[in-house]
Amino acid sequence: MKKTFLAFLLLGSAAQAADPVFLNVATGSPTGTYSAMFKNIGKVCTQSAYLKERGTSGSLENIDLLLSNQVSLAFVQSDVLKAKQQIDQDPRVENIKALLPLHNEEVHLFSKLPVVKKNIFGKETTTGVTSFNDLKGKRVAAWGGSLITAKVLSAKMNVPYTIVSVKDRDAAFAALNAGQADAVLAVVGQPAAWVQSLNGVNLLPINFTPALQGIYSPAKLLYPNLSAGSVPTVAVQSVLATRDFKTPDKKTMLLNYQKCALSKLVNLQEDEGMHPKWQEVTFKTWPWPQYK
């Protein structure tokens, strides 16, 4: 009887030891780029079976969840990480590492369509926001990680404006339509399906300047529904970040996941149904220290 009971305990202990470790991953909207790319990696890497997706409002919430130990991995914009380090001087961010460097996310800046009027002499005048510099003294609605981008761009380009923090995209455009905001700033990888469905708004240019070097890079937006040609803008690189875990089980899991993704880049770029943003991923440029 004692031997049987001892065997039972040993079996129970072995079963517990064999239980897999599950890690939570903060992505974003279920229809967003982060969520899609996480699911894409899951199709080519069996290691992702032990990763659970957690939907969020985006980069800002993601980094807070990662820093507060609510998730083990998070998709974030690199400018949000740098703002935490350089502006907030949060010491916890030094423990954050990049598991995978990903795509560039373009800054989308929207305003209402400009109003063109003619005076009695036939001279035309245009009112409204038509450029980034026109935002001086205006109100810009943003949410999630875009709040940080709006703050950094304002400071770097010396264009002071009031940032209106909103819950989500719908609230941002509601504020624009109600006259509570003069523009909407959103950081999202193009082509964004929701941008492709927009009408009645102006897509504003953001010209790259040397002041943005090291954080942002020049880019172009292509949305035939909003502009006949390309619109200049800037982009920030995103990363899949994690904490600098030292425990053997987590470290092995994360490094195996990293190794698989790095080795499957061609599949991620060429297999049908994968997000088009994989086309610009190289896994060569690390905007943040690498997890090793």
UniProtKB/TrEMBL annotation:
UniProt KW Nucleotide-binding keyword: no
Signal peptide range in chain numbering: 1-17
Assigned keywords, A-Z: Signal
Protein name: TRAP transporter solute receptor, TAXI family
Organism for this UniProt entry: Deinococcus xinjiangensis
Lineage: Bacteria, Thermotogati, Deinococcota, Deinococci, Deinococcales
Domain of life: Bacteria
PANTHER family (alphabetical): SLL1037 PROTEIN
Stored InterPro entries: TRAP_TAXI (IPR011852)
Entry annotated with the keyword Signal: yes
Pfam families to which the protein is assigned, alphabetical: NMT1_3 (PF16868)
Gene3D superfamilies according to UniProt: Periplasmic binding protein-like II (3.40.190.10)
